[in-house]
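Here is one chain, start to finish.
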Amino acid sequence: MADNTSSTPTPTPAPVWGNPTPAGLVALAAACFGFFALLTGQVGANAMPLLGAWLIGGALIQTVVALVDLKGGNQVGGSTFLYFTGFFMLASGIEQFVKYSAITEGAPLDGRIDGWFWLAITIVVWLWLPAFYAKGVTLLALIVTVIGVAAPFLVCADLNILFAPATSKAIAGWALLVAGVGGIYLGAAQIVNGAFGKKVYPVL
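Its structure:
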């Protein structure tokens, strides 16, 4: 009797990647805490190179997160992490070294250029914000909203408009701290709830 069994091997399913978003939230939170410390005067200008190193490290994390999110079809999250890693993390990290060098060498820098870049980012954050509320009010949407509050005050600080720079920096710093705390909690909830397969940490 003929063997009708197919000789074609069954394809091995591709390995499923885990969700890297919690790592991206940790990097975001660390950056927010660092910016809070610098903007509110908790640390001095001599901490800028160290902040820069941490931001560049965070940029590496968020680059991976962005690429994995985009590969998985997460357009909103992936694209947001991608521009965050480029501007909020990497560019800001490099700037800390440049600005500190200018301070120590007494070289002039026109920091107002940063205000124009932050203005573009502010507009992007607010225009993209409805996408984060597409599934209702979530903690992630609230975190992005708080970052959207901080961003225009960074514009004001760099362009020296509307408020005294110290006031603008303080408001932006505290808003970033709130966003950082939210990022820590959301990342922890995703990790712990995923490990137990149930809601251990309540989250929106």
